[in-house]
Design brief:
Length: 395
């Protein structure tokens, strides 16, 4: 055993530590949301690519604890080393494994680079044992990708066409600022699409088809985001948004492919903005999210990843459900975020936000708490003065 007192070491949008017990409590709370959701139906086998945090973790938990699926996750997390703690994603999955084992459920994880041929082969080998997949969730978020040829591609957060200048938020100084970002060149745009577009999702499904590992009627869902006009220049109209458009276009191709091959379906789900380490790095997003959270909590419509994914399975993609799609064929879990009255109110608040008034005009305290909870901190009921076991295995 290796017991340690773990203290938060958070610098802006980067956390250098994770609290094992705090992460475990977070997972137990999400399992309880699944239990209380009144889920019915059964999924045989689920593969979740990007299963350790956020929407991917929620998808794995709903699959396993809601629909009884034999769940195989793929992630890239740092495991504990002797007395050195692992990452939050590692501890999330360690607890999910423990809970599954306690309930007699199947929850397995392959820890490695999901872009790599080696990890894809490990998944194929595992599925030959578990059985063909009924559901494939693609929730991969990574800053870079090494493709099958060995070429390394890096994603870039930049506007396209012209430089961006606009309101931003300095998480370190907790101040409303202005950010300026130069426009991306063609190489940066193409590289971002290689990392965050639909090519790897397609590679996964084509591999599973070739290996005979997609069950009849298999469904696949990949996650995307659009966001408001306030962030469009830096996000949806920028390099990341360009990659998301490629992901969504790929979804149409894959839907036709699965229908023809196994009578299945492939969709893209546009999800609501939530607090993540990646979104914290986008200049305007922490400020936008803080205002959004305040307004949605006031209306009783605020959802975290687990609530959204429960809704996605129940209303759109779970057993017996057929999705409601927008004009471009997408599931819209961001429907509550994008309500016109909410977006109009945010726009009215936005121009007047300053360092002096942003706390009163937003739920920044809630944003901070959610951000700290990503890493197992600020979780009610956890004694952070007590030593906790850091060597928690994925078994």
């Amino acid at each position: 055993m290796s017991l340690q007192v773990i203290e938060p070491r958070i610098r802006g949008f980067i956390s250098l530590t994770a609290h094992p017990e705090g992460c475990a409590v977070n997972v137990r709370e999400q399992r309880e949301v699944v239990r209380q959701a009144g889920i019915t139906g059964h999924i045989g086998t689920a593969l979740v690519i990007g299963s350790s945090t956020g929407y991917g973790l929620a998808s794995a938990l709903v699959s396993c604890f809601g629909y009884g699926a034999e769940t195989l996750g793929v992630c890239f997390e740092k495991e504990p080393e002797e007395s050195k703690p692992g990452t939050a994603g590692w501890y999330n999955l360690a607890e999910a494994h423990r809970l599954a084992r306690e309930e007699g459920r199947v929850f397995e994880t392959i820890n490695g680079d999901a872009f790599s041929t080696e990890v894809k082969q490990q998944v194929v080998d595992a599925l030959r044992r578990l059985g063909p997949v009924d559901l494939v969730i693609y929730s991969l978020a990574a800053p870079r990708r090494r493709d099958a040829t060995g070429t390394i591609w890096n994603s870039t957060l930049k506007p396209i066409g012209r430089p961006y200048t606009g309101k931003a938020f300095d998480l370190r100084g907790e101040a409303v600022t202005e950010a300026s970002i130069e426009a991306a060149n063609d190489e940066e745009i193409a590289s971002t699409v290689k990392v965050m577009g639909g090519e790897d999702w397609s590679d996964w499904l084509e591999l599973l088809l070739a290996e005979g590992l997609l069950a009849p009627g298999a469904r696949s869902v990949a996650y995307s985001y659009i966001g408001p006009e306030l962030t469009a220049a830096i996000y949806r109209d920028g390099t990341i948004g360009h990659a998301k458009e490629h992901l969504e276009e790929t979804g149409h191709t894959l839907d036709a492919r699965l229908k023809a091959a196994v009578g299945g379906d492939a969709w893209v789900s546009v999800n609501k903005a939530v607090v993540t380490q990646a979104s914290a790095a986008i200049p305007a997003v922490p400020l936008y999210l803080s205002v959004l959270m305040k307004l949605m909590k006031e209306r009783g419509t605020h959802e975290g990843p687990i609530e959204q994914i429960v809704r996605m399975f129940r209303d759109h993609t779970g057993p017996g459900a057929m999705p409601t799609l927008d004009a471009k064929g997408r599931i819209r879990l961001d429907d509550l975020e994008m309500q016109p009255d909410i977006q109009a109110e945010i726009a009215g608040i936005w121009e007047d936000l300053t360092t002096e008034n942003f706390r009163a005009q937003s739920d920044y305290a809630g944003y901070q708490s959610d951000f700290h909870r990503l890493f197992g901190f600020d979780v009610p009921g956890v004694d952070y003065t007590a030593a906790t076991e850091v060597n928690r295995p994925l078994v």
